[in-house]
Amino acid sequence: MGELGKVHQLLIPLGGHTLTFNLEAILMTWIVILVLTAFGYFATRGRSILPGPMQALGELFVNQLFGLADDALDKELARKYAPMICALFMFLVLSNWLGIIPHLEEPTKDLNTPLGLGLMGFFIAHYAGIRAKGIKAYVREYFEPMFFMMPLNLIGELAKVVSISFRLFGNIMGGSIIILVVSYLTYSVLLPPALNAFFGLFVGTIQAFVFTMLTVVYISVQVK
Amino acid sequence: MMEFDVQTWIKVAAFSGGGLAMGFGAIGAAIGEGYTAAEANSAISRNPEMAGDIFKAMLVGQAIAESASIFALVVAMILLFTNFAAESFVTVSVLLASGLSMGLGAIGSGVGSGFPAGAACQGMARQPAASGRLTTNMLIGSAVCQTPAIFALVTSFILLFTNFSGRPVSPTWAAVLGAGLAAGLGAIGSGLGGGLVAQASCEGVARQPLTATPVTNVMLLGQAVTQTTAIYGLLVAFVLMFKNFVPTDSIAPPMALLGAGLCMGIGAIGPGIGEGFTAQSTVRWIARNVEATADLTRVMLVGQAVAESTGIYSLVIALVLIFVV
C-alpha cells in the first residue's frame, strides 16, 4: 500500500527554481510512442489492396476517427485535423491500456499528461477559431451577451481545459487506486484480473474516446 | 470520567466516518437497482418471451449500479480496520472527510446508473433484435455514470493515505473537511444527470437501432459535459488538500475553507442534473430525427454551457474563498 501516491521524481535546481521530472511518466510515454511508431511502420509496410492484419487495423482506426472528425467539422477542416485526432486517440488508448501489464503504469495517471494534451487541444481549437472567424469576431465572442460577462466567459473557456484533463486523470487514477487497494485487501486473488479488464480496457477505451471527441467538439465549437 | 485523547478521537472519527460512508453510500444504489427491477418487470409483462434475456440484463445492470456502493463499502472497511497513527487532531477531520466524500459521492452514480439499466430492459421487450447493441450501450452508459463516484473515491483515498499530520491543525482540519464535501456533494448531480442521458440513449437504440452510433456518441458527449461540475468539485478538493495554509488561531480562515468546499459541492448539484436533462432530451430526439444530429448537438452544447454557468459561479466563489479571503 505504501506505493500509493509515490512518484519517482528527478529534481534539477536551476537558478533558484527546481525543474521536476516525473521519470515514470516520461518512460511510459516513450514506451507508448515507440509501440505506436512500430505499429505505424508495420501497418504501412507493404500496403496492398488486400490489407494484411496490421494494415486492416490501421485502416479501421483511420476510418472511424476520420468519420468522427467529418461529422463535427466541414470537409476541409476534417482533412486537416483528422490525422491529429487519430494520433490522439491511438496514443490515449494505448496509454490507458498500458497499466494492465505488470510493472508498467499508465502515463495518463500523471496529471501532467492529460493536462498537456488538454492544453494542446485548447490551443489548436482557438487557433482554428481565429483562422476561421478572424481575430475581431473571435474577440467579440467573449463580450457576448453583455460586455461584463467577459471574465466569466474567459473562466468558462479555461475551465474546459481543467474539465477535459481532470476527467481522464480522475478516471485512470481512480481505476488504478481501486485495483491497488482491492489487490491488497484480497491478497491479489481472483478479483484483480476482472478489475484490470474493466478499468484498464473498458473504461480506458471509453475515456480515450471521450477525450478525443471533446477535443473535436471544442474545435468545431470554435470554428462555427 | 472518560478520557478524550487524540487516540480516542481518531477512533471516534474512524468509526463515524465508516458509518457515514456506508450509510450514505447505500442510498443511491438501492434506489437505482429498485428502479431497474421495476422496469424489468414491466418489460417482462409486455413481452414474456424475452423474460430470460431481460432478467439477465437486469442483473448485469444492477451489478454495475451497485459498484458505487461497493466503493463505499471498501472505504468503510478500511476506516474500520486500519490502525491510524495518533499524531495529530487533523487525522480526526481527515477520516470524517474521507467517509463523507465517498458516502455522498456514491448517491448520484447509484441512482443514475439504474436508469440506463431500466431503459435497456424496456428496450429488449420492445426490440428484441437489438438486445446485443442495447447491452453494450447500457454497459458504456452506466460505466461513464460511475465517473463522479470514482472522483469521490480518489479524494477519499488521497485523504486516507496522505500524511496530513505535519500540517497545522488549524486551518487544515477545515480544508480537508471542505475537500471531502466538495468532491462528495459535487458528485451527486453529475451522477444523476449522466444516468438520465444514458437512459435516453438506451431508449433511443431500442426505438431505432439504425441510429445507434450517433446516439451512443452524443450520449458520451452529453455525459462528459454533464460531469464538468463534478470535476470542478474534484479540482477544489485537490486545491484544498494540497495547498499549504498558514497556521492560524482565528476561526475565520478555517470557516472560509469549509465554506469553499460547501459552496462548490452544493453548487455542483443543480448544473449536473440540469445538463443531464438537456443531453437526455437531445439524445432522445436524435433517435427520432437522426438528420438533425448536428443542429441538436450544437444546441445541446450551448444549452449545457449556459446551464453550467451557475456551477462556474460556485467555482469562482470557492476559489475566491480559498485564495483571497
Question: Could you walk me through the main structural features you see in this protein, from its secondary elements to its overall organization?
Answer:
The complex is a heterodimer of chains A (224) and B (325). By secondary structure, chain A is mainly alpha-helical. Chain A contains seven helices and two strands; from the N terminus they run ββααααααα. Chain B has 325 residues and is mainly alpha-helical. Chain B has one domain: lithium bound rotor ring of v- atpase (Four Helix Bundle (Hemerythrin (Met), subunit A)), CATH 1.20.120. Chain B is flat. The mean pLDDT of chain B is 92. The interface between A and B is large, with 35 and 40 residues.
Write the layout of secondary structure elements.
The complex is a heterodimer of chains A (224) and B (325).
Chain A: E1 9-14, E2 17-22, H1 23-44, H2 53-72, H3 75-97, H4 112-133, H5 135-142, H6 150-185, H7 191-223
Antiparallel strand pairs in A: 1-2
Helix pairs in contact in A: 1-2, 1-3, 2-3, 3-7, 4-5, 4-6, 4-7, 6-7
Chain B: H1 6-46, H2 51-81, H3 90-126, H4 131-145, H5 147-161, H6 169-207, H7 212-226, H8 228-242, H9 252-267, H10 269-288, H11 293-323
Helix pairs in contact in B: 1-2, 1-3, 2-3, 2-4, 2-5, 3-4, 3-5, 3-6, 4-6, 4-7, 5-6, 5-8, 6-7, 6-8, 6-9, 6-10, 7-10, 7-11, 8-9, 8-11, 9-11, 10-11
Task: Write out key terms for the chains shown.
heterodimer, A: mainly alpha, two-stranded antiparallel sheet, 5% strand, B: 325 residues, mainly alpha, Four Helix Bundle (Hemerythrin (Met), subunit A), flat
Largest interface: A-B, 35 and 40 residues
| Average pLDDT of chain B | 92
Biggest sheet overview of chain B? none
Tally of individual helices of chain B: 11
Order of helices and strands of chain A: EEHHHHHHH
Beta-strand residue percentage of chain A = 5-15%
User: Structural class given helices, strands, pairing of chain A?
Assistant: mainly alpha
Low-confidence stretches of chain A: none
Percent of residues in beta strands of chain B: under 5%
What is the ordering of alpha helices and beta strands of chain B? HHHHHHHHHHH
Number of strands of chain A: 2
Quote the distance from N terminus to C terminus of chain B.
Answer: 41 Å
CATH homology superfamily name of chain B: lithium bound rotor ring of v- atpase
| Quaternary organisation | heterodimer
Helix percentage of chain B = over 70%
Spans of at least 5 consecutive residues with low confidence of chain B: none
Overall outline of chain B: flat
Helix run count of chain A? 7
Largest sheet: number of strands, sense, barrel closure of chain A: 2 strands, antiparallel
Structural domain count of chain B: 1
* Structural class category of chain B: mainly alpha
